[in-house]
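Q: what sequence does this backbone want?
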């Protein structure tokens, strides 16, 4: 079936297609109005925060460029249905065929308009940037006063990246699953949009979902494949995102399967005990083989038995050294995993003990100073009493 007959059977100029495109245009207009209202509120908040009066102060060149680009991106939607390239009226009725107009010209025009419609429909996916704004504005991190107060004290900007990091730390599996499902549906719809004009299997939604899934999982059975350049680009991007999400999934699973601090301490402690037991057994084997070798040397056994005990002794020494090296590595690794909070508590206790000892020493020094002052005063009183006694004796003598 040719492209022209497929278009005629599809009936792009019918009242249903016109109604759907009208709804798309209406929703696009509502979206533009909401975006303008959002930036209006943003400018009002900027004026209130900086205690300004003129709103034109907030309209920097960067902000104007961002708003213009955002409105331009959100305004893109299919408008080919209104152009009527095939000469149909809005109800889908075809006019009389003009003999002077060649069929190839109308077919080429129709194909060009369909390509433009496909391009505009694909560019509508640029509106997905609004997802990160919705997640940011409706996140509990941004709405929590405690988060914002502590973040302002630590100079933390509440951006989408910070919110995404919080979500990945709190709900890693749930966040990754939602992202994967959303990406699968979006990529499948885009692939169906790219492949719908050709009579291929990937033009259906079910086949598109299957192709996106096996491409995302980097399996690639080869039973279906894209036939258009747009579909190939979508599948290529899906494969790249699949590799990235697989790496993130491996990181999440590694974090879930990793031991926590308490479990690591218990594990290393039990391994240290087991290696210590094996080291004692190895040391006992070394002593036993030394005694057997000494006995064979003293009693003059055969040379074969003597060499056998020498080999056993060397093997026991090798096992003993290997276990000692393993124990040393284990203790070095365990010392690197020291709990910093525990070390901080120990240092705080030492600091508190030093402070108490310092205060106690200071009190003792103060008491010694007081006692020295009392001794000085007593010596002064004693000298005065002696002076008075001597003076009275002299007067009596006279």
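A:
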């Amino acid at each position: 079936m040719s492209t022209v007959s497929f278009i005629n059977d599809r009936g792009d100029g019918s009242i249903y297609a016109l109604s759907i495109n009208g709804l798309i245009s209406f929703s696009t207009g509502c979206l533009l109005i909401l975006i303008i209202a959002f930036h209006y509120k943003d400018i009002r908040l900027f004026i209130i925060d900086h205690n300004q009066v003129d709103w034109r102060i907030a309209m920097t060149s960067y902000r104007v460029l961002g708003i213009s680009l955002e409105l331009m991106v959100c305004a893109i939607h299919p408008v080919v249905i209104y152009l009527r390239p095939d000469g149909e009226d809005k109800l889908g009725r075809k006019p009389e065929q003009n003999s002077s107009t060649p069929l190839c010209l109308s077919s080429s025009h129709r194909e060009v308009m369909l390509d433009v419609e496909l391009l505009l429909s694909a560019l509508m996916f640029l509106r997905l940037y609004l997802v990160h704004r919705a997640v940011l504005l409706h996140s509990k991190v941004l709405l929590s006063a405690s988060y914002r107060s502590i973040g302002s004290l630590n100079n933390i900007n509440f951006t989408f990246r910070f919110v995404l990091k919080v979500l990945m730390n709190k709900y890693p599996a749930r966040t990754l699953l939602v992202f994967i499902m959303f990406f699968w549906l979006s990529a499948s719809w885009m692939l169906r949009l790219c492949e719908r004009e050709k009579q291929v299997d990937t033009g259906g939604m079910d086949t598109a979902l299957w192709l996106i899934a096996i491409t995302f999982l980097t399996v690639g059975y080869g039973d279906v494949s894209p036939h258009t350049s747009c579909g190939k680009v979508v599948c290529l991007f899906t494969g790249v995102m699949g590799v990235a999400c697989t790496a993130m999934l491996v990181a999440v699973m590694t974090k879930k399967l990793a031991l926590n601090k308490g479990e690591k301490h218990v594990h290393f402690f039990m391994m240290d005990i087991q290696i210590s037991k094996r080291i004692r057994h190895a040391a006992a084997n070394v002593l036993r083989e030394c005694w057997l070798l000494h006995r064979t040397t003293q009693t003059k056994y055969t040379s074969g038995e003597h060499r056998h005990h020498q080999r056993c002794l060397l093997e026991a020494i090798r096992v003993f050294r290997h276990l000692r090296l393993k124990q040393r590595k284990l203790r070095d690794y365990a010392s690197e995993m020291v709990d910093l909070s525990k070390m901080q508590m120990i240092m705080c206790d030492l600091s508190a003990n030093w402070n108490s000892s310092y205060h106690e020493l200071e009190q003792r020094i103060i008491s010694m100073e007081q006692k020295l002052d009392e001794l000085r005063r007593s010596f002064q009183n004693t000298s005065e009493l002696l002076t008075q006694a001597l003076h009275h004796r002299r007067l009596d003598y006279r």
